[in-house]
Amino acid sequence: MAQLRKVILPQLPKTPSGISGLDEITQGGLPKGRPTLICGEAGSGKTLFSIEFIVRGALNYNEPGVFVAFEEKADELATNVASLGFDLKKLIDTKKLRVDYIHIERAEIEETGEYNLEGLFIRLDYAIKSIGAKRIVLDTIENLFSGLSNKAILRAELRRLFQWLKDKGVTAIITGEKGDGHLTREGLEEYVSDCVILLDHRVNNQISTRRLRIIKYRGSFHGTNEYPFLIDEEGISVLPVTSLK
Amino acid sequence: MAQLRKVILPQLPKTPSGISGLDEITQGGLPKGRPTLICGEAGSGKTLFSIEFIVRGALNYNEPGVFVAFEEKADELATNVASLGFDLKKLIDTKKLRVDYIHIERAEIEETGEYNLEGLFIRLDYAIKSIGAKRIVLDTIENLFSGLSNKAILRAELRRLFQWLKDKGVTAIITGEKGDGHLTREGLEEYVSDCVILLDHRVNNQISTRRLRIIKYRGSFHGTNEYPFLIDEEGISVLPVTSLK
Amino acid sequence: MAQLRKVILPQLPKTPSGISGLDEITQGGLPKGRPTLICGEAGSGKTLFSIEFIVRGALNYNEPGVFVAFEEKADELATNVASLGFDLKKLIDTKKLRVDYIHIERAEIEETGEYNLEGLFIRLDYAIKSIGAKRIVLDTIENLFSGLSNKAILRAELRRLFQWLKDKGVTAIITGEKGDGHLTREGLEEYVSDCVILLDHRVNNQISTRRLRIIKYRGSFHGTNEYPFLIDEEGISVLPVTSLK
Amino acid sequence: MAQLRKVILPQLPKTPSGISGLDEITQGGLPKGRPTLICGEAGSGKTLFSIEFIVRGALNYNEPGVFVAFEEKADELATNVASLGFDLKKLIDTKKLRVDYIHIERAEIEETGEYNLEGLFIRLDYAIKSIGAKRIVLDTIENLFSGLSNKAILRAELRRLFQWLKDKGVTAIITGEKGDGHLTREGLEEYVSDCVILLDHRVNNQISTRRLRIIKYRGSFHGTNEYPFLIDEEGISVLPVTSLK
Amino acid sequence: MAQLRKVILPQLPKTPSGISGLDEITQGGLPKGRPTLICGEAGSGKTLFSIEFIVRGALNYNEPGVFVAFEEKADELATNVASLGFDLKKLIDTKKLRVDYIHIERAEIEETGEYNLEGLFIRLDYAIKSIGAKRIVLDTIENLFSGLSNKAILRAELRRLFQWLKDKGVTAIITGEKGDGHLTREGLEEYVSDCVILLDHRVNNQISTRRLRIIKYRGSFHGTNEYPFLIDEEGISVLPVTSLK
Amino acid sequence: MAQLRKVILPQLPKTPSGISGLDEITQGGLPKGRPTLICGEAGSGKTLFSIEFIVRGALNYNEPGVFVAFEEKADELATNVASLGFDLKKLIDTKKLRVDYIHIERAEIEETGEYNLEGLFIRLDYAIKSIGAKRIVLDTIENLFSGLSNKAILRAELRRLFQWLKDKGVTAIITGEKGDGHLTREGLEEYVSDCVILLDHRVNNQISTRRLRIIKYRGSFHGTNEYPFLIDEEGISVLPVTSLK
Ligand SMILES: Nc1ncnc2c1ncn2[C@@H]1O[C@H](COP(=O)(O)OP(=O)(O)O)[C@@H](O)[C@H]1O
Ligand SMILES: Nc1ncnc2c1ncn2[C@@H]1O[C@H](COP(=O)(O)OP(=O)(O)O)[C@@H](O)[C@H]1O
Ligand SMILES: Nc1ncnc2c1ncn2[C@@H]1O[C@H](COP(=O)(O)OP(=O)(O)O)[C@@H](O)[C@H]1O
Ligand SMILES: Nc1ncnc2c1ncn2[C@@H]1O[C@H](COP(=O)(O)OP(=O)(O)O)[C@@H](O)[C@H]1O
Ligand SMILES: Nc1ncnc2c1ncn2[C@@H]1O[C@H](COP(=O)(O)OP(=O)(O)O)[C@@H](O)[C@H]1O
Ligand SMILES: Nc1ncnc2c1ncn2[C@@H]1O[C@H](COP(=O)(O)OP(=O)(O)O)[C@@H](O)[C@H]1O
Ligand SMILES: [Mg+2]
Ligand SMILES: [Mg+2]
Ligand SMILES: [Mg+2]
Ligand SMILES: [Mg+2]
Ligand SMILES: [Mg+2]
Ligand SMILES: [Mg+2]
Asked: Which residues of B touch C12 (CB under 8 A)?
């Protein structure tokens, strides 16, 4: 084995999230050019985590980013993060950010029973190119796939979306809603993803605590415990309280 | 980061609920012009919470309100809250309140399999305009959507209702029935909502306690723990026993 | 707020149940002219509670009552409560009680897939008028609705039944079978009802205890804890062991 | 109330089971002329309980009995209880017992999707008359109804069977298999029955104990706790360890 | 009662399993000429238990046996038990054992939606006669019936199989896979069987223990607790640690 | 029994996994020429375990291996394990490894409703022959079978795949996703497999630990407890902390 380890082999490239504490736990950030799944219950901080990833990228690392929102309109999103010191409007004006609000009409689903992925790709492609985006967020994935009932087809479609994102070379975050006894609603997304982070907001004896856990990170060491995190005036701060395993 | 925080950015506008203790925990009330979801089991206090929100608005903040009731008729509602000192009749007479009892007939559902949202919008619109309402309550959402089985369509319809309310500029409360292991029956409403409050009425060693928790509040800090609350002669009083995290 | 409370507002009218201890916990009895849902598992005491409500009404408050039985025939019912000192025959003879045993045939359900509510209303109407009933019991509701699978239609039908009873001005008890993780089989009845009481018969360390809890009482204060109750020679006695919250 | 209790009212007639300890807990036995449901998991003792009820009736109380077996043939049954000192053959020869093994063929179910109850009634009627039976056992009910999926129809059919048995004036035992979180597979039988007894065979720290509980007994006081019972050379012995509540 | 017990009645005939410790707990072995159900999770020891029953029968009691394997081929089976000192080949050569590997093709199920029981009977009959078998094993039953969805038909088919085996007069073991909250996948097999033994392999604080429990044994006393067992060089050894209750 | 054990019988042939600690617990490795099922949740280490099995085989035991990946492309896989000192490229160049990425298109499933196994066999056959593979991995099985809903057909197909692999004489690993209360999604794979290993990554008091358990190993003794394992710069190291059972 000894001679094997002498050779200097390429390490997995990473993109710093810019989120305080997280890049320490992940030893450098999220997998570069790959999609990461952020899952958690309503209010666990998925959207905030994603937006901070985009904002920090634009401000600290000069990486423009696209935020594809299915739940909140661009101006609502801007209002929602203003108190954290994130000035989305300014970022949009300086072409560092593009917020794309996709409103899925009932009719779009009723016709074919599902959302048209090809149309989404065209739209994403345009958004990415328009600002030369290096980062992208899709918040949340359930909006795309909740019309699909066949698990095998859902799996194929998930992989198609993930592959498309990889082919674009962008570092992506996809958010997902927590399911019953699964990380996600369908319990498939976590298997297909390269990196999975779970956000948690449990109540214990009437006191709530926010916690983050790296469930899975293909190709990299990382802290594996549950780390408490705070949401304060500067966004999210993860406390890497336990030393790296 | 420092220069970022110097800029004075707009804060999320809020509407004081007027409910004792709650505006302290939420740092100012419910999100202004947006819908808030109040969920809980039968008897947890959803209707009382909603009606107090409307009554306090009318009396303390001069904001007329519409209460759309699917469960209780206008006079029943008035009787039910009389002992809390809420005089609905007087508020109705002075055009500060409008109670709209919507009785969904079986036939309405059987024809199309679901309740017609367009018809509801016309009715809500009329009600809002008739008194210049700034607040509105829909009690409870299950009456509208329990005929829809396709999750993707339900999500689209929920968003359509929420968007319609936002477009009207009213601060809304929508109540929802608790589901199995979810906050709501379908487990979707909490993801689509901007603000979610859970009312709870647990029994422990034969003693029951009422508790309230802000599950989610897009765009704002808030107390995150479980706060005990009382229903007494003056309505609901939430005890912000733990300091704001 | 002060001037608000000075006005003397109407209180919710109540009908004393006559059940020992219960009228203390409910501050006067069940909601007058409205239906109350009594739910619990097999053997929890639903039928006994209901029959005592009717018998006490007839004897102590001079309110004739109708008992609609789907499970037990009139003479069986009489036999079943004889040892509690309830003489149903005498009450029937003196026109203070009418027991209506409704036997639902398989054919009635198979034809339309559900029980015909209109037919029930005619029958109930006749029964109520025949003795000038002020109280009525339907034991148990599952017999009427277990053929309905669409939740939206079930909700509409439940409301139709409840409304019909309210229109008649009778104080009603409807019993319901306990469901999985719900108070009732469908988990809908408790949301539609104005008053919900849960009867419980738990075993702990091989010892069983009967307990009663007011889950919900629209328009009224009430004890909210779990109260032990006994079934003895005089019927049900609830022990209001904890003071009114 | 006082004058009410002075009148001597008829008590619920009972049939002694002859099972050691049980008639003490039930204050006299099972409800005479009515069906009792005995439920429990595989091996909990349902069949043994039922057969002892029949054997004791024939030997101690001179009441001939019919045992309708769907699971075991007459000779198998005889073999199975021989070591408990029950000589079924002798009882059959002396016309005190009739064992009717009903073998339900697949074809019988496939044709109509369910078992034909009318045919069963003719067969039971004949069996009862042939020995002038006062007791009857149906072991187990799932054999009759597991083809029925509509809950409303199942309820109607259950009631039809129970009513038929009552009309015959026999004291009946019907056994039922334990369901998930219900006393029986469908969770309906326990609501329709007049008397329900649960047999339990739990393992705690590798040690198993048999326990019996009267879940429900319409029209009668009874011990309500869980009572340990033994199966020994003389059959079942219930230990009424806690005094009657 | 006294005179009843004086008569010497036939006891249930038993077949010694030859498995160390088990014949002590069962007071003589498995029910002779009847099928016994052995259930447990994957790896709990069902196949080993069954094969040892056959091997001990052939070697110690001169009873030839048929092993019908749906999961493992004859030579695989031989390899799997070789290290336990069981020489299947030698037993086969001396006509003391016949291993019948039944390979169910997809096509066989797709045509009729289920496996053809008649064909199986012909095959079993031939196998039994060819060596004059007194013992038989079917490992595992799910292979036969997992295509049947109607519970009433499944019950009828299970009984048909069990009856066929009884008619052949062989002492049989049928293995079954553990289901959710049931002993078997469908939760039916344990009710239809005369004898049910559960094998368990629980982990507690990272340490696993194998345990065996006689769930049910029609017609016989037996130890009712959970007994630890080992798999070592001589096969299975059950430790009858607690005295017979 | 004594004379039986004297004969030297063939032992189950094994293939050393080369994974540190595992071959000690399994007394020599995985069953040679048979498929082993590795199951666990997302991020539990299934892919890493499988790839190390292939890499160690090629390097330490001179056994070429095929890795069939449904989730990760060949170059992604190479990148993912580079930091563990595994140089996949070099192994591929020297014909010691072949990575076959199978991308299942939606269309392939939609046509027949399932993935075509025959096509897979041709592809696997070619891959095995091209490098004279002795080891093979299929990561993960859900990609092949999640379109099959009939359990009987799924079982037949699983067995067909397993049999095909056995016929090829390769030592195989098949990975499977954890299901609700089952080892695998369908809860069938563990019954059909000869060897089943569960990887676990539980969180306890915010601290996570990786553990491995041999659920089942047909034909062999093995450690049966839960063994902690680490993922470090040299791959997986299992700690055989408790002595062999
Ligand atoms: N190259 C690596 N270096 C260190 N740890 C790794 C590496 N690759 C994977 N891991 C660790 O192993 C875990 C499991 O990876 P993987 O085998 O892909 O899981 P699975 O296939 O069960 O989903 C990852 O979440 C990570 O913690
Ligand atoms: N602007 C803000 N200031 C402070 N806290 C915020 C702000 N926005 C959101 N939060 C907090 O973060 C929580 C999670 O928000 P969000 O990211 O929208 O959750 P998710 O997308 O997981 O539903 C909110 O419930 C709130 O507690
Ligand atoms: N007028 C009142 N006075 C005092 N308590 C009341 C009054 N109305 C309701 N309550 C209390 O509030 C509880 C909740 O009522 P409600 O708001 O109708 O619940 P929900 O809408 O969640 O079903 C009731 O069960 C009762 O305990
Ligand atoms: N006449 C009686 N005397 C004493 N106890 C009775 C009498 N009738 C019923 N009970 C007790 O009350 C319990 C509940 O009876 P019932 O009201 O029929 O329950 P439910 O309708 O909830 O199924 C019975 O199981 C029994 O313990
Ligand atoms: N003849 C007997 N002698 C001693 N114990 C017996 C006898 N028959 C049955 N048992 C015991 O009683 C248990 C329950 O038997 P049974 O009444 O057939 O259960 P059930 O019908 O509930 O499945 C058996 O598992 C066994 O422990
Ligand atoms: N030849 C053997 N030597 C030692 N132990 C064995 C042998 N065969 C099986 N075992 C042990 O017995 C366990 C159960 O095997 P098996 O009877 O095949 O289980 P099941 O049929 O319940 O799935 C195996 O997981 C292994 O631990
Ligand atoms: Mg969000
Ligand atoms: Mg309400
Ligand atoms: Mg009742
Ligand atoms: Mg039985
Ligand atoms: Mg096996
Ligand atoms: Mg993997």
From this structure: 79-80, 82-83
Q: What angle do CA C234, C237, C240 make, to 5 degrees?
A: 160
The answer, yes or no, to whether any atom of ligand 1 lies below 6 A from the CB of F81, is yes
Give the residue on A whose Cα is nearest the Cα of B218.
Answer: A80
User: What DSSP string describes D120-186?
Assistant: HHHHHHHHHHHHT-SEEEEE-THHHHTT---HHHHHHHHHHHHHHHHHHT-EEEEEEE-BTTBSSSS
Shortest Cα distance from E160 to chain F (angstroms)?
20
Identify the band that residue A115 occupies on the pLDDT scale cut at 50, 70 and 90: confident
Q: Tell me the per-residue pLDDT of D22-64, one tens digit each, with 9 for 90 and over.
A: 999 999 999 999 999 999 999 999 999 999 999 999 999 999 9
Name the residue with higher pLDDT: F106 or C209. Answer: C209
Is the pLDDT at D94 greater than 70? The verdict is: yes
User: Could you read off the pLDDT of A177-220 as tens digits, one per residue?
Assistant: 998 888 998 899 999 999 999 999 999 989 999 999 999 999 99
Segment among A55-69, A97-111, B14-28 with least mean pLDDT: A97-111
Residues with CB under 5 A from ligand 9 (ion): C 46-47
Which residues of chain B are modeled with pLDDT < 70? 1-10, 242-245
The interface predicted TM-score (ipTM) is: 0.94
Domains, chain B, with CATH or none: 12-18+33-199 (3.40.50.300)
Q: In chain E, which residues have their Cβ closer than 8 Å to the Cβ of D110?
A: 153
Mutant choice from B76, B108, B116, B233 vs C, greatest count of C C-beta within 10 A: B76
Asked if residues B36 and B196 have their Cβ atoms less than 8 Å apart, the reply is: yes
Note whether A194 and A35 are within 8 A (CB).
Answer: yes
* Residues of chain C with C-beta less than 8 angstroms from the C-beta of D157: 106
Distance CA B199, CA E68 (A): 59
CA distance B84 to chain C (A): 8
Helix (H) or strand (E) holding F68: strand F65-69
Q: Do D1 and C142 touch (CB under 8 A)?
A: no
- CA E165 – CA E128 distance, rounded (Å): 11
Average pLDDT of span A25-31: 97
- Minimum-distance ligand 6 atom for the alpha carbon of F224: 27
Angle, vertex CA C14, rays to CA C244 and CA C240, nearest 5: 25
**Residue A150: how many CB atoms within 10 A of its CB?**
16
Round to whole Å and give the CA distance between B146 and B148: 6
Token readout for E47 is: 């196949």
Give distance in angstroms: CA of F236 to centre of ligand 12: 14
Report, in this order, helix, strand and coil percent for chain D, each rounded to 5: 35, 25, 35
In sequence order, what DSSP letters do the residues of F174-195 get, joined into one string? Answer: EEEE-BTTBSSSSS-HHHH-SE
The pLDDT confidence band at residue E209, using thresholds 50, 70 and 90, is very high
Distance CA B79, CA E238 (A): 71
